[in-house]
Amino acid sequence: MPPLSVLVVGGGGREHALCIGLANSPSVGAVHCSPGNAGTSMVATNHDISTSDIEGLISLALDIEADLVVVGPEAPLVDGLADSLRDSGVACFGPHSEGARLEASKLHAKEVMRHLDVPTGDFIVVDDESAISYALDKFEAPWVIKRDVLAAGKGVTVTSDRKTAEKALLEGIELDNFVLLEEHLSGEEASVLVVMDESGYICLPASQDHKRVGEGDTGPNTGGMGAYAPAPVVSESVMHRVTREIVEPMHHHLRNQEIPYRGCLYVGLMIDQEGSPGVIEFNVRFGDPETQVTIPLISSDLGLLLLASAEGRVAEEECEFHELSAATVVLASEGYPANPSTSREISGSEVMIDEGTTSAFVHYAGTNLGENGALMSSGGRVLSTTGLATSLSDAVAASYELMECIELDGSHYRSDIAYRAL
Ligand code: AMP
Ligand code: GLY
User: Fold this and answer.
1) Helix (H, G, I), strand (E, B) or coil at 341
2) Which residues pair with 71 in a beta bridge?
3) Any residues with CB less than 8 A from the CB of 55 and at least 6 apart, and which?
4) Which CATH architecture does the domain made up of 186-316 adopt?
5) Which has fewest Cβ within 10 Å: 17, 28, 164, 273?
6) Is 245 in the pocket of ligand 2 (CB under 6 A)?
């Protein structure tokens, strides 16, 4: 097979991790990224086309004669990028717009789960102010209120305060005409990224993300402040149940759609005290920062794996993993998540650790190269330091050792990543 030309769509830490994994794949000859960031420019050719410019991305894929397009974020999938690429004869890792509704509409995802009897919390749709009080009486605190829109993890309110819950429900009705009230699931959260198509599926090592901004999982939700994998909470027996009760029925459902699902199904889980899994959410793409700790654990050729899924041949692929643990710590801008400051210079991020089986390196996210080639912050999540080692504690230590070398005015990171597992 001639070397593959691959285009990665997106510009975060997830896309940097994908570009590194693809650049290290023997099957891949050229990696392109659009729009990319300062990190992707080190391993790929960046292009200045935004993830919302579907026409521009199609032209780019055709211009560079891409054999494969790997879509990082959900929005272009919801907007039909995969549909248009396939119409143009370009293989795409990422589902068509109908498949992407699993993430775009939480109500749709709940209806699919209810239909398939996939374990998840009970829910009701609240579409009238006069029904708020009745709805809150129906569920016990804490209440979980979700808007049925793409909101990057920020459209969810979890609260034990009835007034706050009433306000969130009212606001949701005013904004979108209806809102979901869900049963609260308790336990430990984890994510399983499943590479799938109509032929089969491969579950990647389970990971755990830290969604709250503050230490001990406090403060507002963010896109994710750090992650680690494999997550010990997903033991072999839990994974067995996740596969049997969630992945199998979802795969059966998705493979039998008019256009089969090809790409990653992100299964967001709550594992209770007894080890019973329940679905919190589905995403239709790799997670960020889960990808930063998952891709480095894959020892097989990533290009071949993603191409197989894009072409409906994943059942033919063998995927192998390093016997290592990975941990990533996110460095966020001052004011993130509410009001991140940008355009500040970053220093010290050019170092890496490489000591036998222990290593650590940087995944760049909201960064660009300013005048004089200086590395500048350009987003809320700026970069993450990812450690790899034979034990999770060594991976975490390597990640923090690298983080301490990096300077960015006003920035912050959590110092307790992986604390539940350690
Ligand atoms: P989502 O955007 O659906 O992932 O929700 C964001 C975060 O809210 C999740 O990562 C959980 O921490 C929390 N959450 C969402 N739904 C529930 C639920 N039913 N029970 C408990 N926590 C939840
Ligand atoms: N880290 C959570 C997500 O990617 O949705």
Assistant:
1) coil
2) 9
3) none
4) 2-Layer Sandwich (3.30)
5) 273
6) no
Structural contact between residues 65 and 12, judged by C-beta atoms closer than 8 angstroms: no
Question: If you classify domain 4-93 with CATH, what class do you get?
Answer: alpha beta
Residue with tokens 């979890």: 158
pTM: 0.96
Ligand 1: nearest atom to the Cα of 278: 19
211 within ligand 1 shell (Cβ under 6 A): yes
Distances in Å between the Cα of 289 and the Cα atoms of 196, 210, 217, 328, 370 are 20, 9, 16, 7, 25
Per-chain mean pLDDT for the chain:
96
Tokens describing residue 105: 């509409």
Query: Is any ligand 2 atom within 6 A of the Cβ of residue 224?
Result: yes
How are strands ordered across the β-sheet holding 188-197? Answer: 200-203, 188-197, 263-271, 277-283
- Pocket lining: 210 vs ligand 1, CB cutoff 6 Å: no
Strands (E), 173-304: 179-182, 188-197, 200-203, 208-209, 212-214, 218-221, 226-229, 263-271, 277-283
Q: Ligand 1 centre from 268 Cα, in Å?
A: 9
3-state DSSP assignment of residue 413: coil
**The CATH fold of domain 325-408:** Glycinamide Ribonucleotide Synthetase; Chain A, domain 4 (3.90.600)
In 3D space, the residue among 394, 209, 395, 377 whose CA is nearest the CA of residue 287 turns out to be 209
Tell me the average pLDDT across 377-397: 98
Ligand 2 atom with least separation from CA of 281: 5
Hey, what CATH topology would domain 122-182 get?
Dna Ligase; domain 1 (3.30.1490)
CA dihedral 21, 23, 27, 33 (to 10 degrees): 90
In terms of Cα–Cα distance, which of 25, 66, 32, 61 is closest to 303? 25
Q: Mapping DSSP to helix (H, G, I), strand (E, B) and coil, where does residue 187 land?
A: coil
Considering only CA atoms, give the Rg of the chain.
21
Q: What is the pLDDT of residues 228-246, one digit of tens each?
A: 999 999 999 999 999 999 9
CA angle (235, 238, 241) in 5-degree steps: 150
Return the SS3 of 297.
Answer: helix
- 3-state secondary structure (DSSP) of residue 88: coil
Degrees, nearest 5: CA angle 143-148-152: 90
Q: What are 151-179's pLDDT values in tens digits?
A: 766 678 999 999 999 999 999 999 999 99
Question: What are the structural domain ranges in the chain?
Answer: 4-93, 122-182, 186-316, 325-408
